């Protein structure tokens, strides 16, 4: 093989590799648009009834465990939820927390190694979530059935 042809072949292969890497890096950097608005730090509450849970086929015991008033507290990239039990119910694990990442109008919540995603909208007083990717029926109810009201 002609040394010049060999050298040009190596350059062509190397250039294609660089082009691929640059394209990959650029696509990773621009894949997540900033949210149109910023969610303020604070506390938001919503209330879910036992009937909301039984309506989706949950037993009375599971419904009782997943009903009540939920308080979502937001501080930067961290969130926590506290659940006050519905009247006559007991909640065994009333608090949980994690981090979240915003990508445009979507928020991906991460807790204990699992993640779920919701679209979000905030009008200055109420925060609303719409399911994008979540398979936990009870969480879908308390995330989406009613607005989360900003506490002042």
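Sequence proposed for the structure above (152 residues):
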């Amino acid at each position: 093989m002609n040394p010049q042809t060999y050298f040009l072949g190596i350059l062509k292969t190397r250039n294609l590799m660089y082009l691929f890497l640059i394209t990959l890096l650029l696509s990773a950097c621009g894949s997540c648009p900033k949210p149109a608005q910023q969610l303020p730090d604070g506390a938001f509450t919503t209330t879910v009834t036992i009937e909301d849970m039984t309506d989706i086929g949950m037993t009375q015991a599971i419904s009782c465990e997943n009903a009540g008033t939920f308080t979502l507290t937001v501080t930067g990239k961290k969130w926590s939820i506290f659940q006050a039990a519905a009247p006559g119910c007991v909640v065994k694990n009333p608090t949980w927390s994690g981090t979240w990442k915003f990508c445009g109008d979507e928020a991906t919540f991460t807790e204990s190694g699992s993640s779920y995603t919701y679209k979000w909208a905030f009008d200055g007083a109420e925060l609303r979530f719409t399911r994008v990717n979540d398979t936990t029926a009870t969480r879908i109810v308390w995330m989406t059935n009613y607005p989360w009201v900003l506490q002042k």
